[in-house]
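Severity: low
Component: inverse-folding endpoint
Summary: output formatting inconsistent between runs
Steps to reproduce: submit the following structure tokens with default settings.
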């Protein structure tokens, strides 16, 4: 693990948010941290301490859902939360066009376009969570309350529950 600069767009977002001190906490890994499991293994943390940044399309409009790495998003709960007729996973090109990042490296904020953001309440179960910093090899730690605030996210319950 080495310290490295975040993706330039994400680095700009950190600066704009007054979070320049986070640059020293950004970590890069030679192996990909594209999936929550890969990130947790590389960092050495619990799977639920990974913050996944997932783009969905609600009636065709992109929406970001922040979810802990051990859980899955319940699309029906997202649909109800947004009052949408239909919610689906966004295609890779829509993710890149909306956020400016490839799937596996999407951070919780610092996107190319402004989107509505939902954060699952389960993220608050930890003192620190880790999220992508703009590419599949780079992550950063942050208190989940701060992450939710900087992402301008609405706290919701959209985690899939086992039957």
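Observed output (run 2 of 3):
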């Amino acid at each position: 693990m080495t310290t490295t600069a975040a993706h330039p767009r994400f680095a700009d977002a950190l600066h704009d948010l007054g979070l320049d001190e986070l640059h020293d906490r950004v970590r890069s890994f030679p192996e990909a941290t594209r999936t929550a499991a890969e990130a947790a293994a590389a960092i050495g943390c619990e799977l639920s301490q990974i913050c996944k940044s997932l783009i969905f399309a609600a009636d065709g409009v992109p929406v970001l859902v922040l979810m802990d790495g051990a859980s899955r998003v319940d699309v029906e709960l997202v649909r109800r939360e947004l009052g949408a007729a239909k919610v689906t996973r966004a295609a890779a090109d829509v993710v890149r066009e909306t956020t400016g990042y490839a799937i596996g490296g999407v951070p919780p904020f610092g996107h190319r376009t402004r989107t509505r953001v939902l954060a699952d309440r389960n993220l608050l179960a930890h003192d620190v969570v880790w999220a992508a910093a703009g590419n599949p090899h780079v992550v950063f730690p942050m208190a989940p309350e701060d992450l939710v605030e900087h992402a301008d996210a609405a706290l919701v319950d959209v985690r899939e529950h086992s039957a």
